[in-house]
Amino acid sequence: MNELLQKIHDIGIVPVIAIDEASKAVPLAKALVKGGLSAAEVTFRTAAAEDAIKAIVKEVPEMIVGAGTVLTTEQADRAIAAGVSFIVSPGFNPKVTGYVISKGVCMMPGTATAGEMEQAMAMGLEVVKFFPAEQNGGIEKLKALAGPYKTLKWMPTGGVNTENLSKYMSFPQILACGGTWMVKKDLIENEKWDEITSICEAAVRNMLGFRLRHIGINCEDAGEAQRTAKTLSALFGFEYDENDKGIFVGKEFAEVMKYNGRGRCGHIGITTNDVDRAVYHLLRKGATFDESSRLVDEKGTKFIYLNGDFSGFEIHLSRA
Q1: List of residues 6+ apart from 249 with CB closer than 8 A
Q2: Domain locations in the chain?
């Protein structure tokens, strides 16, 4: 993926904004950024869209701004002139799609069928919108399509919300999800900026899906590790699973190390739906990472340690 698409992937959620008053665009954008969502699609459904885009691009440079509901080449020209980084359409219009591509702007046309997706891929696109997502079969349909379309990524929009978000975001071919639940009309009209920020923060937590995987316990040698692991296994009835480096006691309880590993006392293993997204959002909160510990596969980062000591423990992230 190119740099723009990678950043949208890492942000993970793209609010879809229909705004009636351009004067509210900047405080809205700042509320979204504060909540962790620094990408947004401003739809051309309202007369204020163009001015709203211009204001956000000028006043909130950290926000990646896209234009949505772009139905014509004339709207595409206006969006590009306003400074958007990407353009989204609700359906697949070859004329508009080809025009935006010819202008060198990232295009994500709406698709609902395999035929539309193949046409988009034939035009060189690696990401398409899936719309309306829930009404067209949701994540289960995309998982079924993933077999023949292994290189395609989707941005599902339509019916995505806090309840079903994690189902989408745990699937590696999802670039990001579009949604309106954090930018509902009444919240914008009543200038509920703090509430919008809180909804965004909750959405990010749900998307990342942090869960405790295990506690790592350092031991002096294999003998101490075996004694400790056998005691814990006997006490709690957990499975005993030994390997060269340590012994797992239960799948989500403890990893008893056969040596003094990372951390004065040991480590804490945390899983997440997507490690790269987790790294992006934790960096925003001041965390740093030990790049020498990063493990990567074809799906992206699968493992990495945070820098720092947490009361004698180090922390690593791994893919759920």
Answers
A1: 229, 232, 233, 236, 238, 239, 240, 241, 255, 256
A2: 3-208, 211-319
